[in-house]
Amino acid sequence: MSTLGKNIRNLRLKNRLSQAALADLINIPSQSKISAWESDQSVPNILEAQKLCQVFNISLDELAPHSHLFQRIA
């Protein structure tokens, strides 16, 4: 099963973006955060995840399939 980090990396590469370019697009001051996500050392918060989805034009479910990380609290 693919991890959230692998999904972010694959989407970034598919869109021909460097880690620095992606960080700029979602207003993160350093590409090191992108690197940490891609290596599954950390995960984006919900606002960062939403920005990723906007950049990649996907839903949260597509970003993190089978994940409960971004489940909405009812």
Name a few traits of the molecule.
single chain, 55% helix, mainly alpha, 74 residues, 434 Repressor (Amino-terminal Domain), 5 helices
Mind explaining what this structure looks like?
The chain is mainly alpha-helical. It has one domain (4-63): Orthogonal Bundle (434 Repressor (Amino-terminal Domain)), CATH 1.10.260. Helix content is 55%, strand content 0%. The protein has 5 helices and no strands. The protein is globular, with a radius of gyration of 11 Å. The relative contact order is 0.19. The mean pLDDT is 90.
Fold blueprint:
Layout: H1 4-14, H2 19-25, H3 31-38, H4 46-56, H5 60-63
The top level CATH class name: Mainly Alpha
Largest sheet: none
Mean pLDDT: 90
CATH homolog superfamily: lambda repressor-like DNA-binding domains
Structurally, how many domains make up the residues?
A: 1
Class by alpha and beta content? mainly alpha
User: Architecture, according to CATH?
Assistant: Orthogonal Bundle
Name the assembly state. single chain
The helix/strand series, from N terminus to C terminus, equals HHHHH
The amount of beta strand, in percent, is under 5%
CATH topology: 434 Repressor (Amino-terminal Domain)
DSSP E strands, number: 0
Q: What is Rg? A: 11 Å
Distance between the termini: 28 Å
Given the structure, what is the number of helices?
Answer: 5
